[in-house]
Amino acid sequence: MPQVTKEVDDMLTLARATGDDDPRAALAAARELRRTADRTEAAVVRRARLQGLAWAEIAEQLGVSRQAVHKKYGRR
After folding, report:
1. Each residue of 12-62: pLDDT tens digit?
2. Number of other CB atoms surrounding residue 74 within 10 Å
3. What one-character-per-residue DSSP string does 39-72 give?
4. Residue 38 contacts by C-beta under 8 Å, 6 or more apart in sequence?
């Protein structure tokens, strides 16, 4: 299974788990969903840069400033 597909499947599973009746389980799922989303975003930003997208374009797509996206991912 390609890595991106696995990440998407994992995120869907976690998103569903946030609806668990047990609030502890739901909170744990939300925490892991946020971590997975952060890792996925970082990978997508790296891929975008490798394909030649400018920081400004990446920032626009993410809905943040160019400075914010460059500060978060520019030194990796």
Report:
1. 999 999 999 999 999 999 999 999 999 989 999 999 999 999 999 999 999
2. 12
3. HHHHHHHHHHHHTT--HHHHHHHHTS-HHHHHHH
4. none
The candidate with the shortest Cα–Cα distance to 7, out of 36, 44, 47, is 36
User: Considering Cα of 10, then 15, then 21, then 24, what sign does the dihedral take?
Assistant: positive
The structure tokens listed for 43 are: 């990978």
3-state secondary structure of 16: helix
Question: Quick one: pLDDT at residue 7?
Answer: 80
Task: Name the amino acid, one letter, at 68.
Answer: A
CA distance 17 to 31: 11
Question: pTM here?
Answer: 0.81
Q: Is the pLDDT of residue 76 over 60?
A: no
